[in-house]
Amino acid sequence: MEKQTLEELAGTIREAAASPDHTAAIRAVLQASQSRKEDLADAIAKLDEDEVMLFEDETCSIWTCRYNSDVVFAPHEHCMGVHIAVYRGAEVEVLYKREPGKLRHGGNRLVRAGDVVRLGPDAIHAITADDEQSLAIHVYEGPLTQVQRSLFEWTTGEEVEFTMENFHAMARRKVDMTEFN
C-alpha cells in the first residue's frame, strides 16, 4: 500500500512536470498531496534508505527525503529549481550566499509539515530536520543525477565535487554550528 501511495504521487508529479507551466503545476500537485500527508509520511518512513529516487527523466527528478535533527548536510547547489513538500516534522533549509573566500549564512527557513516551498536554481543550502525527523518529497525541475553540481566547504565556500560520499562525509553535528545558536 505504501509503495503504491508513492508511485501514484510520482505519476501525478510526472504529468505536472511535463506541462507547459511545470513550476505552477508541480506546486499544485504537492499542495494537493498534503491532504494525504499522513499516508505519504508513513510510506516514506517505511523505506529502507533516507533518500530514495522514485523517478527521473529530462523533466524532473523525484526523491523521498528523511532527515534527522542532529546532523546537518553540507551546503550544496542543485542548478535547477526544487520543490519541497514536508509531510511530517519540519525541515530546516540553511541558506547561504557565496562571497570571496567564504560562505555567508543568509538565514534559516523552516518548512513544516503541510508546507510546500520552492528554492530557485541559484540557491545554496544545507539541510537538516528541526526537532524531530522530517519526512518529505523533493521534486527537482530536471534530471538531478545528470547535472554536474557542487558541494561547498563550510567556511571557505570552496567548491567540492558533489558525490553522495562527499555529501555524507561533510555533514556536521547541529550542536557544533553557529547557524543554530
Structural write-up:
With 181 residues, the protein is an alpha+beta fold. It has a single domain (2-180), classed as Jelly Rolls. 24% of the residues lie in helices and 40% in strands. The chain has helices at residues 2-17, 22-33, 37-45, 164-169; strands at 51-56, 61-67, 71-77, 82-88, 90-99, 102-112, 116-119, 124-129, 134-140, 150-152, 159-161, 172-173. Strands 1-2-9-4-7 form a five-stranded antiparallel beta sheet. It has a five-stranded antiparallel beta sheet with strand order 6-5-8-3-12, with no helix packed on it. A hairpin with a 6-residue loop joins strand 10 (150-152) and strand 11 (159-161). Helix 1 packs across helix 3 (37-45). The protein is globular and about 45 Å long. It starts with a helix and ends in an 8-residue tail after the last strand.
Lay out the secondary structure.
Blueprint (H helix, E strand, L loop, with lengths): L1 H16 L4 H12 L3 H9 L5 E6 L4 E7 L3 E7 L4 E7 L1 E10 L2 E11 L3 E4 L4 E6 L4 E7 L9 E3 L6 E3 L2 H6 L2 E2 L8
Antiparallel strand pairs: 1-2, 2-9, 3-8, 3-12, 4-7, 4-9, 5-6, 5-8, 10-11
Helix pairs in contact: 1-2, 1-3
